[in-house]
From TrEMBL:
GO cellular component, one term: cytosol
This protein's encoding gene: glmM
Function field: Catalyzes the conversion of glucosamine-6-phosphate to glucosamine-1-phosphate.
Name this protein carries in UniProt: Phosphoglucosamine mutase
Keywords: Isomerase, Magnesium, Metal-binding, Phosphoprotein
Ranges in coiled-coil conformation: none
Cofactor section: Mg(2+)
Organism expressing this protein natively: Copranaerobaculum intestinale
EC numbers: 5.4.2.10
């Protein structure tokens, strides 16, 4: 990770640590870099937060000043940018979003011409330019770029999703929580076209209500809705619609781990699970691995982050991978998480098996989990402390095969994350607090 770009682009509070000047500089650099001898073609999309238009205009102004032709997709899911960049042969794509963060944050994520995350060497070049190093040659006369509002782009994306899944949802009652975000641009049209009856909540974005007590990080209102009516499935998206948390007909959550299990087992039975393997992160639940063992499905773990999941999948050509948080990637169709596509794949499994979501997860027991963040002076030094390692090892031995402990550093803050999974909430609380209190007492 560089000075500005993390694993998921540049992110920060709008007009505080993510400024309009930064957006203009990024636009200038990519406009120049991808347009050495011609007009570069750059696709820009955004979610619904208030600052999105400001950053959209800044990026477009910077890129056109360097000679690029900029296509504005408007409000759209992040995965639509990834798909359309490769499908329509853009030089690169930009998504303006801070995903599940509050409205006052925003972010700028860059995709290369293959719809994959921008290579690090280009990001480092952008960072140097943002810091005033080097120069960008601006266009003059007819070399200046232009801005085009691309109204047909999302229709191409929706058509692709429907062609990939091709199911008839007639007679299915589905509840949607659109998080007042990007999913408002695609989810209703797609599912209605496939014949579903829909009940939609949190679908009136006003610039400041994105992710507010709704969506994949706050699915409680969707759960209440599912319990109050007769619905086959409920789907909650995050702000930029690249991840999904589902809810079954009983109002129970279907996390990314549940989705990996449902789709992984279905692909295993159909013979489409490459090397019989599912990719997870270290944060996936112990219960998922136990269930995979019983189903004779193997798995590979990566560090936390959909970036690492996809890198592992791409390297080995694995079929499916994802995170507990709802990022799920289906390698044959897309190279990034896509909440709407994930919903369609769950519905496809339901249709093909004739089973309810609750029935599809009957053999999956999710162990109770507790995670506590502890502030430390130096997260890396703390995790090298021999006494702490002994405490963690002792907890691990006491849990045995009926649980696990994971202690790891935060990627962005001076925190150590202590997570325990065990058969009961009481055991989770006991063991997590034992380690947390040790860290605090030692003043690590």
């Amino acid at each position: 990770m560089g000075k500005y770009f993390g694993t998921d682009g540049v992110r920060g509070r709008a007009n505080d640590n993510l400024t309009l000047d930064m957006a203009v500089a990024i636009g200038k650099y990519i406009g120049s870099y991808f347009g050495q001898d011609r007009h570069a073609r750059i696709l820009i999309g955004k979610d619904t937060r208030l600052s999105g238009s400001m950053f959209e205009m800044g990026l477009a102004a910077g890129a056109t000043s360097a000679g690029a032709n900029v296509y504005l997709l408007g409000v759209c899911p992040t995965p639509s940018i990834s798909y359309l960049v490769q499908k329509e042969r853009f030089d690169c794509g930009v998504m303006i979003s801070a995903s599940h963060n509050p409205y006052y944050d925003n972010g700028i994520k860059l995709f290369n011409h293959e719809g994959k995350k921008m290579p690090e060497e280009i990001l480092l070049g952008i960072e140097s330019y943002m810091d005033g190093e080097g120069d960008v040659e601006l266009a003059i006369n007819d070399a200046l770029g232009s801005v085009i509002r691309w109204e047909d782009g999302l229709e191409l994306y929706i058509s692709y999703l429907k062609a990939c899944v091709d199911i008839d949802l007639s007679g299915m009652n589905i509840a949607l929580d659109l998080s007042n975000g990007s999913a408002t641009a695609t989810a209703v049209e797609t599912l209605k076209d496939l014949g579903a009856n829909l009940k939609v909540i949190h679908a009136q974005p006003d610039g400041v209500n994105i992710n507010t007590d709704c969506g994949s990080t706050h699915p409680e209102s969707l759960q209440e809705l599912m319990c109050s009516g007769h619905y086959d499935a409920g789907f909650a998206f995050d702000g930029d619609a690249d991840r999904l948390i589902a809810v079954n007909e009983n109002g129970e959550l279907i996390t990314g781990d549940h989705t990996l299990y449902i789709c992984g087992c279905h692909m295993h039975k159909n013979g489409t699970l490459k090397d019989n393997k599912v990719v997870t992160t270290v944060m996936s639940n112990l219960g998922l691995y136990r269930a995979f063992d019983r189903a004779s499905i193997s798995y590979e773990q990566t560090a936390v982050g959909d970036k690492y999941v996809y890198e592992c999948m791409e390297k080995n050509d694995y079929s499916i991978g994802g995170e507990q948080s709802g990022h799920v990637i289906f390698n044959a169709y897309e190279n990034t998480g896509d909440g709407l596509f994930t919903a369609l794949m769950l519905l496809k499994v339901m249709r093909e098996t004739g089973k309810k979501l609750s029935e599809l997860t009957e053999d999956l027991f999710i162990y109770p989990q507790l995670l506590i963040n502890v502030k430390v002076n130096d997260k890396h030094r703390a995790l090298e402390n021999e006494e702490l390692l002994e405490q963690v090892d002792l907890v691990s031995k006491e849990l045995g095969d009926e649980g696990r402990i994971l202690v790891r550093p935060s990627g962005t803050e001076p925190l150590v994350r202590v997570m325990v999974e065990a058969k009961t909430d009481e055991l989770c609380d006991l063991y997590v607090n034992r380690v947390v209190n040790f860290i605090k007492t030692k003043g690590l």
